[in-house]
Amino acid sequence: MTQVAYGVWDGVVHDRQAGQATLEPRNFDEFDEGNPIRAFFGDRGFFVFDESVSLVDALYHYMRKAAEQSCGVCTPCRMGTVLVRDALDAMRRGLDAPLDLDQIAMLGEQMRETSLCGLGQTCAVALLDALGHFRGRIEAELAPKRPIRAQHGMAYMTAPCIEACPSKVNVPRYIDYIRDGKPENSLGVLLQKYPMAATCGRVCVRYCEQACRRKFVDEAVGIKTLKRFVADQQSGPNALEFTRDMIRKPLDPAMRVAVVGAGPAGISCAYHLLLRGYHVDVFDKASQAGGMAQIGIPAYRLPKDTLALETEIIADLGGRFLFGQQLGRDFSINDLFARGYRAVFLGLGCQAGSRLGVAGEDEARAGYFSGIDFLLRVHDHVAGKVPLSLSGEVLVVGGGNVAMDCVRSAIRLGAGRVHVLYRRTRADMPADPGEIADAEAEGVTFHTLCNPVRVLTQAGRVTGVVVAQMEQSEPDDSGRRKVRPIPGSEVTLPCDTLIAAIGQQVEDGSRIEADGIALDRWRCVAADDALTTSRPGVFAGGDCVTGPSTLIWAMADGLKAARNIDDWIQRGSVRFYKRARMRKLIADNDFLANDVVETPVRNAYRVHNPELDPELRKRMFEEVEQTISARAAYAEAQRCMRCYRVYTVLTGHPIPEGAV
């Protein structure tokens, strides 16, 4: 590890010369290949690795970024950042500054103590630490009254919610636009990252809200609720129209890319490639776009017309959907390259259900479904293709979102009683807590710390399940408890329908391997950090790489793949991306700590989407949640504390340009 020469972090002084060097941040040897990191400045202090670093120049660049990003609402941040920036700029140029070091320190204290948002409260921390503990170094720099040599590096602004989002959506910015009464601008922030804003506003699992600092005051900001509000405003006469004319630099018609899979990853990849000017064809074995979002998310959570409007953006931008086309059956990777496609993206998803792997399962021919197969039947029923009804006792094994979709759908299909069986505790369930609460409100019974050990059948029809009670072990080194069956605890639960919602797998892995695409030990497509596969020119992302995940992760992979495909076609290799490198530095060192909010905020609990009454909604597949009003959206947007943080890094050499 690289050792700090001097600095202050979280109020602790580190000085190697004084024998106080204890800080050894991780992953700080180089920023990019052959480019050493000389210093790092952030919201909790700074540290310097190279004694020759100019603190004056470094602090100027930090405050310049803060001044650029100040929202201007409060005077301390709006004026303080500019005054300090200009004073430091004059000092680094060897000119007489309008403020001396004492006055700069006074302004820094005012910003820290009286600013109204996280940016203003933290942007002077490194400045004050440098002046308070290493002022002699600053004065020595200024003594010659000569210009200070400019240093290489970059500045990066983020927030806890941004870093938690797989797509790195600038959440505070789109909330700011809602607060300013400009929902169309807010939608623009979302569309920079993915085209499925209304879909995501309904089914996102809200990583951003888990990171929201507002939770230390009362409740996290309803980021997902606001996203849906913004997306739903753009309908009817207000709808944003997508056309090929939106593409600034259309490429030659020979610049064609094939996207295999019209799920969230494929749609996102196609969207970003189209905006880059490529000509994109999307192949899918189904008859409509959406992938697992189409067949795996019931209509009461995601109306299919909403999904259809957003997937149609691909055709509006000039892309083509080629439905009824399955990889390995109707075409191969070799075929695609032979047709002239410059690159291929695999967004195949995980549409094969996993089996329980217990005795008696093979004999179950009626009344037994995998979670995915059941949801596909539900989709076809709601679409009017194949009717489906249930009765009696229904048991669903699993604790994820697919399991919650299964139990809530089973209720709507007429089941007498619906039960969830989960091998761990309620707190361990990976499903969205809101989905669990909604299922319970609709009458689902939860059985935790129990696991099926045998499926009972009669003439091939499921009649029940033998279940063993489980107990938790002591925590292991990671703090996680395992579970094990309690000997002699087996009981029989009768049922008419059994649904195994315990996981999903990539379909037709052998066909993919036959095309020269390596799989990993979980039988997922093997792809590196750049989403490149074992075959040059073939990229992959979403569930077929990660295993069953979330819509937002799939769309994030689509964006990343599009960017890297563009690099591969235009440059022959994938570029280094400096913002991704900064995010890794921040994540590896937990710089965005879950600290308490600095400035008292008046309690104001979050706005929730209006919902249909549980007794009404469990009898139909119409959408349960409704969009909030403009008044409610404005009130919710006011709760955002704009927890922006600025980070800057100094490097030995210039960071590659064009790497965003």
From TrEMBL:
It comes from the Bacteria. GO terms for molecular function: 4 iron, 4 sulfur cluster binding; oxidoreductase activity. Pfam families: Fer4_20, NADH_4Fe-4S, Pyr_redox_2. This is Formate dehydrogenase beta subunit. Residues 56-101 form the NADH-ubiquinone oxidoreductase 51kDa subunit iron-sulphur binding domain. InterPro entries: DPD_II, FAD/NAD-bd_sf, FAD/NAD-binding_dom, Helical_ferredxn, Nuop51_4Fe4S-bd, Nuop51_4Fe4S-bd_sf.
